[in-house]
Amino acid sequence: MRKKFIAKTLAALLGIGVFTAAVPNVGAVNTCEAAFTFKNIGQTYDLTFDASRGVEKTLTYGDKEIKFIAYENIVYVKKPVNVEAQSLSIYIPAEYLEGGTINDYTAETAPIFMPNGVGGYMPGEIKPPTDNDPMSKGPNAALVALSRGLVVVCPAIRGRTTVTDGVYVGKAPALIVDYKAAVRYLRFNKDNLPAGDTDKIISNGTSAGGALSAALGTMGNAPEFESYLEEIGAAEERDDIFASSDYCPITNLENADKAYEWIFYGENKYYQAMWQIQDLQARLNNKKFKINADNANNPKTVKDASTMTKAEIQISGQLRDAFPEYVNSLNLRDERGKNLTLNKKGEGSFKDYIKRKYIESAQKALDAEEDLSKENWVIIKKGKVVDVDLSKYPAAVTRQKAAPAFDKMDLSSAENDEFGTTDNRPRHFTEIVQKNSGGVMAKAEQISLMNPMNFIGRKDVKMAKHFRIRHGAADRDTSLAIPAILALKLQNNGVDVDFFSPWGVGHSGDYDLDELFDWIDNICK
Ligand code: DHB
Questions:
Q1: Beta carbons of 216 and 241 less than 8 angstroms apart
Q2: Of 477, 33, 19, which is closest to residue 284 (Cα–Cα)?
Q3: pLDDT under 70 in the chain at which residues?
Q4: Ligand 1 binding site (Cβ under 6 Å of any ligand atom)
């Protein structure tokens, strides 16, 4: 019965009528799981930075020539389990090697901008500075950072499809382990680097990469990661950072399904993202899939709507009903100290807070003379946005994911894969879905280490002092409630948080680079 059900759901997901192929690993019972101990690949690497390896390069940004020294493809751990995925590149403005100053920064004071290229929980590649980024069709964040006098460090990072000798070495929490190891590499070499202040490291990422950036910012020196870091031969150094920039973080995965249904319950039509279909298809066919500019962070959706099944509608209600209890357990407070809660029906001060974020967003757009007259969920009186009607929001922006949005009953999501085993069997990460559909849960530790919410406010962890969190008002990949809860919990624990939902923006990042680097200047100077 169950197998049939799984096949049917997958068929619906893939938009095919008959589903006959075997489903590799999906839904299979996991009997034995290799512990998180990998054979390192043999060679041991020296972690001392070699300043003689630099190559001078020049790119143009606007009418400026940006000269920088590139130190590329440096393995950042002593015992990598995947050399390609555990290498980084460092880019330093050339002026600093001649004692120069840029934007009031010097070689000693220049902050280190550390973007990760992770998307879809796939491996993150090194993204060198470019003036022709496939996403923006112009300069990327790394090039703009150099132009503003920052040192740029781009680490590659293991992801859910990283394989070494047939072993999946990049499942959760490997991506966080690697980002931390890259930070440790920089600290280990702080006296060898020609420029950059290792006490001013700023992470940046989008979507799964935004979640990763948030993790780095909230989990500094957390003791639970020690054995993972030791295993790959990470430098024995601190891994806390100064600031974290997080675009549309796909985070707090244990609760993201509930938050999604709190917003989208009742909307039973959904329009899937193309990359998610391609990703699943590749996994089912044992083919390679790569996130690239055409499919990552690009809300390209299928044209035709799918309709949620009875089982999906049923669990949608269950998830929606479970959200208030979660919100109330957090004891969140707004800027004025008012408690943010929800009653059983999902109404209350937390909902008012979310509405305020949308109102603020719409007002800014209105002030910039955008036409909002067709937005039937936005209520405008005399040039002021006075309210938003969240019951009309799902129809206005459309639902992207059937329920459950993340922990799929048939284990088919990118997140199920992320929480998979070293032999590539996807697993659940929420009890509510696992109880409903059967299948194996990921280990409690694996789940817990992925969630920034579990680390905020802990005395044995050093959080970043500053966060900048952005989640577009038209983002349907996760509910605005998820980054809002992250921002509120950080704020309630004394962290400086700049949280905003830009109007008309879908699931994407790095779209406001001038503002991002102004924020960095503000917190660093
Ligand atoms: C990403 C987007 C998603 O909707 C998701 O579930 C996981 C990852 C991403 O773009 O990285």
A1: yes
A2: 19
A3: 1-41, 292-300
A4: 119-121, 207-208, 250, 296-297, 414, 477
From the alpha carbon of 405, which atom of ligand 1 is closest? Answer: 6
How distant is the alpha carbon of residue 394 from its chain centre? 23
Between CA 47 and CA 76 the distance in angstroms is: 6
The secondary structure element, H or E, covering residue 289 is: none
> What's the CA gap between 38 and 41, in Å, rounded?
9
Are residues 114 and 91 in contact, defined by beta-carbon separation less than 8 angstroms?
no
The residue whose CA is least distant from atom 8 of ligand 1 is 120
Output the pLDDT for position 37. Answer: 58
Helix (H, G, I), strand (E, B) or coil at 54: coil
Phi-psi region of 286 (alpha: psi -120 to 50; beta: other; left: phi over 0): left
Closest alpha carbon to 169 in 123, 126, 108, 116: 123
Which residue in 113, 118, 126 sits closest to 173, CA to CA? 118
C-alpha 288 – ligand 1 centre gap (Å): 18
CA 279 to centroid of ligand 1, rounded, Å: 11
The pLDDT score that the predictor gives to residue 296 is: 54
CA of residue 120 to ligand 1 center, whole Å: 5
